[in-house]
Amino acid sequence: MPSVIKKSSIHVLDLLLVFIPVSVAFFYTNAHPALTFIASAAGIVGVSHLIIHATGIIAQRTSTTVSALINTTFGNIIEFILAIFALRAGLVDMVRSSMIGSIIISVLLLIGVSMFFGGLKYKEQKFNQESAGVSSTMLIIVVVGLALPSMYNLLKNEPAPAMSLSVSVVFTIVYVLGLLYMLVTHKHLFPTKQSMWEPTAYPWSLPTSVILLLIAVGLGAYMSYILVETVTPLVNEVGLTERFVGLVFVALLTNIPEHITAVNYARKNNMTMSLEIGMSSALQIALFVMPVLVLLSPVIMGGTLDLVFSPFSLIALVMTAMIANYISTDGVCHWLEGVQLIAVYLLIAIAFFFI
User: Which one of 151, 228, 291, 354 has the fewest CB atoms closer than 10 angstroms to its CB?
Assistant: First the structure.
């Protein structure tokens, strides 16, 4: 296991934790929705970074299996909690869009930024083709699974709750079996899975890390509640759609710490780890978080969350899967490929701004 760095330092993202009391003050004094939204979003970014630190220390001081379970449980916990509050508030379109947005951001923007900044330091970078190939195939399965309920809705002009539930069950099984493949039966093909966590500068003990992790999750839940309560008045006043807010803002703010970690690995010429972070995050959202939300939706919102997406969302997802499959073919990348991935993401975001 990687050793924990003993020298303590404060990361710039940790400073965003000061926005937690600021957002609470804005919320309860009925400040402008934009101010409350920005403050709560900044607080969520700070909390997400704190969760990464805490889970990193726990993972470094436990077995590989426990590390995998920690990553499965807390890797996208803020997105999950935020989606629950949004579903309870009736913001179903925002939830669907944020899930698609998280997948697209993790594959296109996170990996693209990593390739760009890594390519500025190294002319070419190599990565594990086996790991990237398995992940890209998983993304194709995601596209197929999500397209079926949408096609049913298009042809029958009625929701497909039973199909959405069935797809969610299959997704969950595939996700669990994928973990078994990478961590048990074929772990020799995925050496980065044994060291997914970057050494942290915080010398916290294991009990302290567990306590801070639980506190961070609680604070993240509270910030998520405030952000969701602010979305509707903000959307009505600014004129943005739920779909755009979910796909761009909500999906991005919970992934900023992962972006920074992935870029750090790329700058250390470890592009394999950068791709692993991006692809693992995307697959966790698609094959675990989204299916669990569907399965729990009758309790959360009194009805099943349909996996019925707009044609633009499906097109964006198809393009993302195609690009991920292309990336995995040669095992080599450079800064221009990073620019191309970023450009595709920006084009998708622009399209959603106008629809």
Answer: 354
Please write down the HEC assignment for all residues of 261-291: HHHHHHHCCCHHHHHHHHHHHHHHHHHHHHH
Residues 216 and 50: their CA atoms lie apart, in Å, by 7
Q: All domains of the chain, ordered by start, with CATH?
A: 12-354 (1.20.1420.30)
Measuring CA to CA, which residue among 109, 106, 108, 81 is closest to residue 95?
Answer: 81
Q: Is 276 helix (H, G, I), strand (E, B) or coil?
A: helix
pLDDT of residue 8: 45
Separation between Cα atoms, residue 20 and residue 163, nearest integer Å? 40
Q: What is the rounded distance in angstroms from the CA atom of residue 64 to the CA atom of residue 56?
A: 12
Q: What distance in Å separates the CA atoms of residue 38 and residue 34, rounded to the nearest whole number?
A: 6
Characterize the bridge pairing of strands 332-333 and 125-126: antiparallel
Give me the average pLDDT of each 10-residue run along the chain (355 residues).
Answer: 42 84 94 90 90 80 66 79 91 90 92 93 86 85 90 82 90 89 73 49 78 91 92 80 86 83 88 87 90 91 84 89 84 90 93 85
Distance of CA 329 to the CA centre of its chain: 24
